[in-house]
């Protein structure tokens, strides 16, 4: 079984109920692009409302706590996100690592909590600019994955997706060269095969994220071992987001 290309919109801290019309438009358009799996991760406040609108698209959360309940003011657990309709959660995003000091150990604990609650995980990794410039990006990213992914996991290819998002490419309009993306994704693939075995590890999707736009999506998505995209800014309007989904379908046909 080969998984479809996966195009995921991370709305970050954007969107009030006025955004529900975009969610509806994304859902309607997704019904025409069945060869691509489309999903959005709205803020928690919109999770349930987007879930109720969505017939075709997957809906997920942008974070969860490492515990399922308890005295953690202001936090949301994976069980609660699942109850609101989340089928997946984005974990280890560089903005959470930076803004909230999240360590690999915490990301690992959150991953365990999400899987236990029955939702899938999109695990983010990616290097800062100085690491890229020093030539150590691959080691940095593989170390992140080694420490934040579970040692073993049944049906790993269905339950776990990795997103490679170089920090310096997020929201900047800059992207790595296609060769650099290909090399990093190949290195991540090697790691996943080592950890989860040839069958699951070669099937798992590795998304690229960082300034993906309709204009560059097709060439990025055609790179080997790129199984989809995690899209920030360009996922906030149905028009640009679904043009990326369209490009994913075209790249698949190439
Ligand atoms: O961080 C990202 C998705 O998680 C990427 O954001 P941009 O697409 O806005 O660069």
Automatic annotation (TrEMBL):
The active site is at 93 (electrophile), 165 (proton acceptor). InterPro entries: Aldolase_TIM, TIM_sf, TrioseP_Isoase_bac/euk, Triosephosphate_isomerase, Triosephosphate_isomerase_AS. The lineage of its organism: Bacteria, Pseudomonadati, Pseudomonadota, Alphaproteobacteria, Sphingomonadales. Its EC number is 5.3.1.1. Coiled coil: none annotated. Homodimer. Keywords: Cytoplasm, Gluconeogenesis, Glycolysis, Isomerase. Its main location: cytoplasm. This is Triosephosphate isomerase. Pfam families: TIM. Pathway: Carbohydrate metabolism; erythritol degradation; Carbohydrate degradation; glycolysis; D-glyceraldehyde 3-phosphate from glycerone phosphate: step 1/1; Carbohydrate biosynthesis; gluconeogenesis. The keyword Isomerase applies. One of its GO terms (cellular component) is cytosol. It catalyses: L-erythrulose 1-phosphate = D-erythrulose 4-phosphate; D-glyceraldehyde 3-phosphate = dihydroxyacetone phosphate. Belongs to the triosephosphate isomerase family. Substrate binds at residues 10-12, 171, 211, 232-233. GO terms for biological process: gluconeogenesis; glyceraldehyde-3-phosphate biosynthetic process; glycerol catabolic process; glycolytic process. It is found in: Cytoplasm. GO terms for molecular function: triose-phosphate isomerase activity. It comes from Parerythrobacter jejuensis. Gene3D superfamilies: Aldolase class I. It comes from the Bacteria. It is an enzyme of class 5 (isomerase). Involved in the gluconeogenesis. Catalyzes stereospecifically the conversion of dihydroxyacetone phosphate (DHAP) to D-glyceraldehyde-3-phosphate (G3P). NCBIfam families: tim (TIGR00419).
């Amino acid at each position: 079984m080969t998984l479809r290309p996966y195009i995921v919109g991370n709305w970050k801290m954007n969107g009030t109920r006025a955004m529900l019309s975009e969610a509806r438009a994304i859902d309607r358009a997704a019904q025409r692009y069945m060869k691509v799996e489309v999903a959005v991760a709205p803020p928690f406040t919109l999770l349930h409302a987007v879930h109720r609108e969505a017939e075709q698209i997957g809906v997920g959360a942008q974070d969860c706590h490492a515990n399922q309940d308890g005295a953690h003011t202001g936090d949301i657990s994976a069980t609660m996100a699942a109850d609101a309709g989340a089928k997946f959660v984005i974990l280890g995003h560089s903005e959470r690592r930076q803004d909230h000091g999240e360590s690999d150990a915490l990301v690992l604990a959150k991953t365990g909590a999400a899987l236990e609650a029955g939702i899938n995980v999109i695990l983010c990794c990616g290097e800062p600019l100085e690491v890229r410039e020093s030539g150590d990006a691959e080691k940095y990213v593989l170390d992140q994955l080694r420490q934040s992914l579970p040692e073993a996991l049944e049906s790993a290819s269905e339950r776990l997706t990795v997103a490679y998002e170089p920090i310096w490419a997020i929201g900047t309009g800059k992207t790595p060269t296609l060769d650099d993306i290909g090399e990093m994704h190949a290195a991540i693939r090697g790691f996943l095969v080592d950890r989860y075995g040839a069958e699951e590890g070669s099937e798992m999707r590795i998304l690229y994220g960082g300034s993906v736009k309709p204009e560059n999506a097709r060439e990025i998505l055609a790179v080997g071992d790129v199984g989809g995209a995690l899209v920030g800014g360009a996922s906030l309007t149905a028009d640009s987001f679904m043009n990326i989904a369209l490009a994913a379908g075209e790249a698949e046909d190439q």
